[in-house]
Amino acid sequence: MVATVIPVDPFDLVIFGGTGDLARRKILPALYRRLRAGQMPKNAHVVGVGRKVLPTEAYRQIAASAIREFVRREEQDAGSLDDFLRCLTYRNVDVRGREGWSELRELMCTDHVRVFYFSVAPSLFSILSERTHDEDLATPDCRIVVEKPFGHDFASARTLNTEMAATFDEHQIYRIDHYLGKETVQNLMALRFGNALFEPVWNSQFVDNVQITVAESIGIGDRGGYYDEAGAMRDMVQNHLMQLLCLTAMEPPAQFDPDAIRDEKLKVIKSLGPVMRKDVVRGQYLKGNGGSGYLEECGNPKSRTETFVALKVQVDNWRWSGTPFYLRTGKRLRSTLTEVSVAFKDPRHWIFDEHGNRKGTNLAIRLQPNEGITMRMTIKDPGPGGMRLKEVPLDMSFADALDEGTLTMPDAYERLIMDVVRGNQTLFMRGDEVEAAWSWVDPIILRWSQDGSVIHEYEPGTVGPIESLFLLHRDSRYWREI
Ligand code: NAP
């Protein structure tokens, strides 16, 4: 199968923070791969910006080494790399200061789509919005891209939104949650709204429970300073898990249109019930399995920051009332896995003598590893010997279904950056969505700080604290395996 590549309009993309970790690991490799796929026009122009004084040639060397390090070997070729490096320029500008802006402005083409990627610390977002405007770089049609974390609570998110709104319209602001750029996330919408099969049973009458898991086998690495201020709730639940929850639970939008979709997602967040104390379990990983414990890694022996959280959540609306959504995320767990799983109820009347090995019909939508969809179905065990039942998976890996030999799945950043150039906000969070997510999460975090709730320790390489298992056992349910 050959991927359809529709080239985007010529663009100028300024990466503020062009030498940083995110630019090297994600943004530059994504652009290189889009150029190689034929989607990035040859006259597109990418400008890396940082405070360091660097000639463009040195920046091109930084970009070349990033491509060599972060792009798969089979996707590297000298011709594409040369073409890509020719698109790059570097300018040193301290975004807090007044120097260097006119040199940056001179690089902009008037007839190109203009994108400013704020790949710098969030504390610089406001000043950067102001400067791009005051220094005459911003145009009414330009776009800005901001990375998570978007605020650390409702108040800070609102302040950021207000400050950016002073310079940019909402239709110009692209708040990235890279989970939304994954193929499977969009497939969740295709699956639900493009097949008559699922939508009629996608409700509390037929669905027993929904589980959303984002498990990581790695620890916090060198992000200790940031992570200890954030924790799993702010780092993962407020954004990634909430977005997956919204896409799973939302009503069908009237049309596939960015605002119609975001309106429906917002309604889901607004229908979330308050989470009771007994419905949250938080944990912190210990030393073991060949690695240090969280307290050692974060450098704060008294830290009460959670590296694991599990929650039972109620979506209090007509469709979902009575069907719990269980969310769980953690670091240093048994494996790295992101999936949404929908467990259907048993048939109302059971006509067979036996139950076989049934655990119930189950649909699992995997975001990583190996993006795809698995459905467990009950069938008759083949062969003579009566009506014996058995559960089998109907497994679809997207890579296999789409023939990985000819079509490699684009990384989330490739899709998202091209969507920014196209002006399509479907896969980006709107300001009111982000604020609503914070106002749901804030009371949970506040309660932890006020009541000194327990943090359960867990051994690395496991499924997290045992108390998270009880969260489901007490409802006579089980987590899916990590
Ligand atoms: P980083 O490695 O620390 O890089 C920061 C970049 O910003 C560097 O290029 C730095 O260059 C530049 N910079 C810093 N202060 C500046 C100033 N006053 N004026 C102009 N440039 C300045 O950070 P990062 O990991 O790439 O993260 C960038 C953003 O993405 C952050 O908001 C982060 O939270 C977010 N994010 C990162 C990741 C990730 O995987 N890295 C994932 C999700 C979100 P100079 O030192 O030369 O100025």
Strand content: 15-25%
Q: What is the distance, rounded to the nearest whole angstrom, between the alpha carbons of the first and last residues?
A: 32 Å
Order of helices and strands: EHEHHEHEHEHEHEHHEHEEEEEEHHHEH
Secondary structure: helix percent: 25-40%
Rg over C-alpha atoms, rounded to the nearest angstrom: 24 Å
Please, what is the average pLDDT? Answer: 92
What hetero molecules are bound to the protein chains?
A: NADP nicotinamide-adenine-dinucleotide phosphate
Supply the number of helical segments.
14
Main sheet specs: 9 strands, mixed
Structural class: alpha/beta
Shape label: globular
Strands across the major sheet, in which order? 14-13-12-11-7-10-9-8-15
Number of strands: 15
**Poorly predicted parts:** none
Summarize the structure.
This protein has 482 residues and is α/β, with parallel strands linked by helices. It is built from 14 helices and 15 strands.
